[in-house]
Amino acid sequence: MFTLKSLSICTFGLLFSSAILANTNTIQTKLEKEGYTFVKQIPAPTGLIGWTGYKDEYPSTVFISQDQKYYIVGDLMDQNGKNLTEEAINTHAKGAVLDEIWKSLEKSTWIQDGSPQAPKIIYVFNDANCPYCHTFWKQARPWVDSGKVQLRHIMVGVIRPSSKGQAATILSTTNPAETFKKYNLAEGKSKIQDMPNIPKAISDKLDENAKMMDKYGFYATPALVWKNAKGEIESQQGAPKDLKKIFD
């Protein structure tokens, strides 16, 4: 399963040939229609044109025969067994994939927690029945209340059968952010009702959130995703022990 931590940083010198590029249109167009995004042309064995790219946020390399009859999606090994495409992926496709991941998080259904002008944004996969999510919410208050951090709670229903209905109830209120805040401030004394008949629009959004959580390799809440000082995406599954390391 693809996870955010599965992309490592390497360096690899690559060449670009505009003459060969013109010959790839047929298969390249076909793959693009199927959802593949081409990022960078890379060196390839004689008779093939190589590319790095990604589909559904999964990076890979594609090698297209110059006669436009065949193509391969996968790794390229040299005679010594060295994986040549892994370095190319990390150099050229990694950044594009991580940008897509961040865009996907932005488009998900989340609850605003903190100032929109906060310099740091952290996405949190959150289940209403998760005690560790509540603990993290409390621990994060100094950074959120000071305007340094903005949490974006991506609501999911994965712990109990009632979780999805409770998330739907929160999202259905006129002010989900205020409802979510009051729920956490109540210290468990005020429970969120489980919505019995969830409107399809909200149900679909919660299902998409759950699919995203699974896609990125998370199986427990809270699960955090953020950008470090270098602009690189990092992640944490479970309540973090050292919040300063993430928040500061």
From TrEMBL:
Residues 119-239 form the Thioredoxin-like fold domain. InterPro entries: DiS-bond_Isoase_DsbC/G, DiS-bond_isomerase_DsbC/G_N_sf, Thiol:disulfide_interchange, Thioredoxin-like_fold, Thioredoxin-like_sf. GO terms for cellular component: periplasmic space. Its main location: periplasm. Pfam families: Thioredoxin_2. It is found in: Periplasm. Keywords: Periplasm, Redox-active center, Signal. Required for disulfide bond formation in some periplasmic proteins. Acts by transferring its disulfide bond to other proteins and is reduced in the process. NCBIfam families: PRK11657.1. Belongs to the thioredoxin family. DsbC subfamily. PANTHER family: THIOL:DISULFIDE INTERCHANGE PROTEIN DSBC-RELATED, THIOL:DISULFIDE INTERCHANGE PROTEIN DSBG. This is Thiol:disulfide interchange protein. It comes from Acinetobacter silvestris.
